């Protein structure tokens, strides 16, 4: 009996079921509903550019605000340092003035005692009545200028009165008055035979003289200052013509204002007016340090 080989049928069936290497079962196509839920890539370039521009604007504004905040902090720190310097300067000036007043009081007491010992009671009474209180401002100082016989003030009044706007204005006014009184006293002693200049007068004042501290007096400016800023030291003289005034009284030693009183000794010499001329009372003029 002849039979059909089983292997041929099995082989044929097996070949129908086998998958070649690299072949995969095909996936079903997505339904239209699923395609609608897939996020679409943004392709609007104009919207993207607008967004970037807005972000850049915000960044620039934030950067500007940070810079402004930094500048505000710097200004506040600078103002704090200035206030501290002004306070220290004012305290130093007060101490200096106090020392000078104590010295003047001791000298006045000694002279008063001497006059009383000699029986010159009327002279003591007249000297006491002639004493004036220190001015509390430059405005008050300006009202008293007519008491001076040998000092002529040609300085600009507005510049001087601007010093009253500062916290140390009262101290500066008192020191300016002290300086003007010292110049008046110097002129009187020159007419009575004193042979030195104002600096010598302040270093070794004659008996009864009113001097200004020589450490706060400068009779000249540096050559560099005069070369670069000499024109600022030209002020009105008695006749109105501008004349050079290097000599100055220092009303403060430190700070941004450091007021000065510039004057000219015109007591003697050819064509002299016989006066001490004060041509400037105001903030420190320009020099190599302030420029």
Description of the structure:
With 291 residues, the chain is an alpha+beta fold. Helices cover 51% and strands 10% of the residues. It contains 9 helices and 7 strands, in the order αααααβαααβαβββββ. A 5-stranded mixed sheet has the order 1-7-6-5-2. It has a two-stranded antiparallel ribbon with strand order 3-4. A hairpin with an 8-residue loop joins β6 and β7 (275-282). The chain is elongated and about 140 Å long. Mean pLDDT is 82; it is low at 7-16.
**Count of helical regions:** 9
Class computed from helices, strands and strand pairing: alpha+beta
Shape: elongated
Kindly state the mean pLDDT as a whole number?
82
User: In percent, how helical is the residue content?
Assistant: 40-55%
Write down the Rg: 46 Å
N-end to C-end Cα span: 132 Å
Strand proportion, as a percent range, falls in 5-15%
Tell me the total number of β-strands: 7
Low-confidence stretches: 7-16
Main sheet makeup: 5 strands, mixed
Strand order of the largest sheet: 1-7-6-5-2
Order of helices and strands: HHHHHEHHHEHEEEEE
Provide a brief overview of the structure:
By secondary structure, the protein is α+β, with helices and mostly antiparallel strands. It has helices at 6-17, 32-37, 45-117, 121-130, 138-143, 157-161, 169-191, 198-203, 223-229, and strands at residues 151-153, 217-218, 234-236, 242-244, 248-250, 260-266, 275-282. The strands form two sheets. It has a five-stranded mixed β-sheet.
